[in-house]
Amino acid sequence: MRSESRRGGRRLSLIFGIALLLMITTGVGAAERTRPVLIGALNDSWGPTPAAVGLRDGLVELGYRENEHFVIGIRFTQGDTAALPTAAKELVQQGIDILFATGPSAASAAQMATNRIPIVFAEVGDPLRLGLVQSFARPGGNITGVTNLDLELGPKRLEIFREIIPGLKRVLFAYNSTESFSIAEAKAYREAARRLGIILIEKPVRTQQEAQTTFGQVRKGEVHGILEPRSLSLNIPGFALETASQRVIPTMFHTAFWVERGGLASYGPNFYESGRQAARLVDKILKGASPAATPVEVNTKIEFAINVKVARALGLAIPPEVLYRADRVFR
Fold first, then answer.
1. From the CA atom positions of the chain, what is the Rg in Å?
2. Residue extent(s) of CATH 3.40.50.2300 domains in the chain
């Protein structure tokens, strides 16, 4: 994540309490606008996401002033996707004007919580398959957002992983077997691995305890690398990062957020940019556009990141041609 994103994340955390207080104590309709627009941001992370920071920054770039024109309140469930529906309902009950959902599970929970309040999503890889929208051009209902090419990028991510790791053959992929998107992700990796001559060691799990046990049983030499799923549920990315550090195993993530924190590499959408794009959709809705007729946008900004310090600790010499292609290099 960018340095400005980290600062923004801390600031969003600081306004969390005041945002919720405003939501509870003011119930003015959007048309009257005698107080800030109340945006409820929902995610299954551990705090403000890069997309939420991007949303805030994007609105400011469009001329909105934070705390005067809009306030963002964050609800996060710390990897517990089962808690998202309740969190979404609570935001709706607190009188928000717009519900901003980060990730497929949060977007689905938001859709179940309200058919009245406009919903804008980000970091969702396949909104059509998830049933969030009827089409990209005319989403229908009260929802629109920014989609990412998560599933489409999976095969390329695995291919880059093989370029970085000479002799990559056995790759661990643990995922939440109760999430439809994670199941689709596993299928995409399975097909890509078969084509690349890689053995994908699939570990479907249903609880956080199962996920922790799965990674606790990993031994160096049994796998040559770890692929992290897109979903934050069950803290699988956290366990993957911890195991990789303890067992000295290379990891491939979908976002640079984890590379900055000790992962080897990542290839995927820039989620901060997804939030900035989502700000344009929020702006349109605030100016009277219907979410049903506001086209879904695609975030085409893809990042390839490498942590050179981690590579050295793993005893890897990143090929110069691979390092040259990296958009971000952490040293």
1. 20
2. 3-149+270-302, 150-268+303-330
Distance CA 24, CA 135 (A): 34
**Tokens in use for 331?**
């040293």
Taking Cα atoms as reference points, which of 157, 189, 178 lies closest to residue 253? 157
Q: According to the CATH classification, is domain 3-149+270-302 in 3.40.50.2000?
A: no
Does 329 have pLDDT greater than 50?
Answer: yes
Q: Is 302 left (phi over 0), alpha (psi -120 to 50) or beta?
A: beta
Number of C-beta neighbours around residue 317 at 10 A: 10
Nearest to 14 by CA among 73, 58, 57: 73
Burial class, 253, CB count within 10 angstroms (exposed 0-12 / middle 13-18 / buried 19+): buried
Write down the pLDDT at residue 230: 81
Query: Whole-angstrom Cα distance, residue 185 to residue 269?
Result: 15
Contact at 8 Å (CB) between 102 and 43?
yes
Distance of CA 224 to the CA centre of its chain: 25
The CATH number of 150-268+303-330, from 3.90.1150.10, 3.40.30.10, 1.10.10.10, 3.40.50.2300, is 3.40.50.2300
21-30, 115-124, 272-281, 321-330, range with the lowest pLDDT: 21-30
Q: Which DSSP symbol is given to 229?
A: P
Strand partners, 175: 204
Instruction: Please list the residues that pair with 99 across neighbouring strands.
Output: 40, 119
Residues 6+ apart with CB under 8 A from 32: none
Residue from 264, 256, 252 nearest 227 by CA:
252
Q: What is the pLDDT of residue 5?
A: 39
Q: How many CB atoms lie within 10 A of CB 265?
A: 29
